[in-house]
Amino acid sequence: MSNNFGHIKRVTRSVGGREYTFRSKLEYKWAVWCQLRKEQGIIIDWWYEDEETLLELETAYFKNRKLYLPDFTIQIAEKDSLLGVENSYEFEECKGYFPPKDYTKIKLASQQYDNPITLIFANLKSNSRNSKTRAQYARAKRLEPHIKRVIYDADKTIFHPIQGLFDL
């Protein structure tokens, strides 16, 4: 896949005994967070840009087809008293920049698939002086009713407490 953001350097690191080339430091840090959750038994497993989860989406207006590959596929266990333990999957998407086309893909995926979606930003603020940042924040807020959750400040709330785990 091409890298449309030449100013963002890819990061190649080993996480959980597997080597990955991440599109950004944010994705690398999230992979470390996924591995930590796996090791603690919070999730069963995780995959980065797993081709098996390539989603085909259909737009409402012209019935165009779009492809969407979530950054992370998370296998979780849900306990059901009648059926025992059932595995299910969630998608987690890291965003440094959140353009309208990505908003559309995530909204379509939330409408056309049953898998919960989490949207992760390192540090996205509503009160930014930058109008593009405010627009990205507004897009994320509009998605909140359609997806599982939006994490606006992963740098502070998740990554800061575990910063010693990162190889940067």
Could you describe the 3D structure shown?
The protein is α/β, with parallel strands linked by helices and 168 residues long. It has one domain (11-159). The protein is 28% helix and 30% strand. It has four helices and nine strands. Strands 3-6-7-8-9 form a five-stranded mixed beta sheet, with helices on both faces. A hairpin with a 6-residue loop joins strand 4 (55-58) and strand 5.
Mean pLDDT: 91
Tell me the Rg in angstroms. 16 Å
Total domain modules: 1
Number of helices: 4
Residue runs with pLDDT of under 50 for 5 or more positions:
none
> How do the SSEs run, as a string of H and E?
EEHEEEEEHEHEH
Which structural category do the helix and sheet elements fall into?
alpha/beta
SS strand fraction: 25-35%
Report how far apart the termini are. 24 Å
Query: Fraction of residues in helices?
Result: 25-40%
Query: Which word captures the global form?
Result: globular
Strand order of the largest sheet: 3-6-7-8-9
Q: How many runs of DSSP E, i.e. beta strands?
A: 9
Largest beta sheet, briefly?
Answer: 5 strands, mixed
Report a brief summary of the structure:
The chain is an alpha/beta fold and 168 residues long. The chain has four helices and nine strands, in the order ββαβββββαβαβα. It has one domain (11-159).
